[in-house]
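User: Here's a chain of 185 residues. Predict its fold as C-alpha cells.
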Amino acid sequence: MIDFSEMEGFEWDDGNISKNWLKHEVNTAECEEVFSNSPLLTFPDDAHSRIEIRIYVLGKTNSNRLLFIAFTVRKQNIRVISARDMKKKITMKNMMKKLKKIPVFKNEEAERDFWAVHDSTEYVDWSHAKRVSFPNLKPSTKTISIRLPEGMLDRLKMLANKRDVPYQSYIKIILDDKIESEMRK
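Assistant: Prediction complete.
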C-alpha cells in the first residue's frame, strides 16, 4: 500500500489538464483542492495496478463540489488521470447492486475516456474505501511578476508585519479571501 504521507506534489501535462477541463470543466486547482480537504475516501484498484498503481478518490473542492478522481503515483507526485463530478450519491441501495467489472485499459487516454462516461458507483465498492490524508502534499504553484506602487507595497508590508507573516504570504491571504468572496456571489 502507498504511504500517502510521502506524496509531495502533482504531475500535470496537456493530457490530464485539458481533457478534464474540456470533458467535465474540472480544473487543476479543483483537483488539487480535493486532496487537501476532508473527508477524502480512497479505493485502490488492485486489478489495474500491475504496471502503475491506480487509486480512486471521492472528495470535495473548497467550494463543496463533489468530485470523483482516478489517479496514479509517479515518484512522490499524484498524476490525475480523470476528474469529474460525482453523478450518484453513494447509498446502501447502490452499494448492494452487483458491481460491473472495470475493463482493462490500454493507456491513460482510454481510462480517461471510460471514466468520462461511467459512474464509479457501478464499478467500485465504496463501502471498503479508506479515509486518508496527504499531510505533505503541496499545491502546484507558478511564479508571477506583479508591479505595485511603492506606497501600496509599503502598506502591505506594514499590515503583514502586524500579523507576523511575510508580505508575500499576506498578499496570498488577501487574494484568497477576495477570490472566495467573489466565488460565493
